[in-house]
């Protein structure tokens, strides 16, 4: 889908590493004020596409456009004020504490000689409260569990206060309860602030539950794009993931839910036979 009115979009975008092309002529417009989720099998180009949107990978062809201008032509700090990124495996400086790491999300809003402001403090505290990391403020990041660290990184992204937020596997290292809690938080952020969110997720059912807009990739190309009902069909899932499946309605969210068929079906439990009685034996 192409839409010249979208703030963030790509035009025949080609991305790759070395002599390998990973994303091939992808044209997509990110719907403003919506939650977009990119799905697809491993090594299909999901994370590379997200890096391209965040100007971390320079296009080999085509372009990424932010507010109608090529994103690589705009100053880094200017872009950072409106577009935030949580990469897949971020690395924290050794010994940094949670409050300091979250506070780094405010750097794009500060000049060389600008001091920490009340607005910065409020943004950091609010981000830590939202992600349930406020009590960890004085803890060293490298002492935290994987799930705690992931929530701290998301807090830093929220503290940046951007209009556009890109997240690569934000539920990594989180248990099921915290995955749902984190996705609920991001959807609430979208609803409250109108933040445009783009996520890469592996779980197709969670993607269908939380996305307004789905983009399904296979081998670096868009196979399907649209609402969850339009994208999550048995045919598309079979084409993208090579999975025999059935699509039913999620009983909670009423969104499409994929049920894998698989090669090994559960065995039908055998019904025990009641022991024979003397009367039965006489009737034989």
From TrEMBL:
Listed GO CC annotations: plasma membrane
UniProt region (Disordered), positions on chain: 254-284
GO terms of biological process kind: iron ion transport
Gene Ontology molecular function: ATP binding; ATP hydrolysis activity
Domain ABC transporter: 8-244
Chain coiled-coil ranges: none
Keywords assigned: ATP-binding, Cell membrane, Ion transport, Iron, Iron transport, Membrane, Nucleotide-binding, Transport
Localization in the cell: Cell membrane
Membrane topology: Peripheral membrane protein
Cited InterPro entries: AAA+_ATPase, ABC_transporter-like_ATP-bd, ABC_transporter-like_CS, P-loop_NTPase, Siderophore_ABC-ATPase
PANTHER family assigned to the protein according to its UniProt record, in alphabetical order: IRON(3+)-HYDROXAMATE IMPORT ATP-BINDING PROTEIN FHUC
Designated name of the protein: Iron complex transport system ATP-binding protein
Lineage: Bacteria, Bacillati, Actinomycetota, Actinomycetes, Propionibacteriales
